[in-house]
Write a structure and sequence with these properties.
about 200 residues, alpha+beta, 6 strands, about 40% helix
């Protein structure tokens, strides 16, 4: 058994994604297809027997509970709060990021990504813009802002500010802890795979 989304949830996620893809219908269809593939455990970078194994046949969380967790999560990433990390993130969770060749595990693994960002953008902040949740999965539209005042991927500080629209999908176990976080790459993934940018 795997998590599935209703038509209503897909419409809601499509609405959230519209800010990211500038109302490009084909891009949105492709994004939603990738979401369904990931939820079904068929995406190339979804490891069999991890998220699905944790969630299969388990109780479904109340949507209100998921929203409450995500509001605490917002505070956690904006303050690097270790105690909140322990409360919200499963210790066995594995997170994959271009910043590390190996998966980062548990609360400290996740917070290491935040600390990595803070080395380059000391005032970085994430703010939830919108959210849809169902079947132990939350889709969150974030706006991330910050100032490039530290070395980032070898590039010297420029002092420039940024504001980026980001979408992530969070998976929960029955205890209400996050067991996976998948970012929707959108146009960046297309440009990277075509060799038009290097990351």
């Amino acid at each position: 058994m795997h998590a599935s989304l209703t038509d209503g949830s897909l419409r809601r996620m499509r609405s959230i994604a519209s800010d990211l893809y500038h109302d490009d219908g084909n891009a949105l269809k492709n994004a939603m297809f990738c979401v369904n593939q990931r939820l079904a455990g068929r995406a190339d970078n979804t490891k069999p027997g991890t998220v699905e194994e944790k969630m299969s046949g388990r109780p479904i969380l109340d949507v209100t509970a998921i929203r409450a967790v995500m509001k605490k999560f917002e505070t956690m990433i904006n303050t690097c709060d270790d105690a909140l990390g322990d409360e919200l993130i499963d210790p066995d969770a594995a997170f994959f990021t271009p910043a590390s060749e190996k998966p980062l595990r548990g609360p400290q693994g996740y917070l290491s990504i935040v600390r990595f960002m803070r080395q380059s953008f000391s005032d970085v902040q994430w703010k939830i813009q919108d959210m849809a949740a169902e079947n132990n999965v939350a889709a969150v539209h974030w706006v991330c802002t910050g100032t490039h005042d530290g070395v980032f991927l070898g590039r010297a500080p420029t002092g420039r500010r940024f504001s980026a629209s980001i979408m992530n999908f969070y998976y929960f176990n029955e205890q209400g802890k996050i067991v996976n976080d998948i970012a929707a790459e959108g146009m960046i993934a297309i440009l990277r795979q075509l060799g038009m940018i290097e990351l």
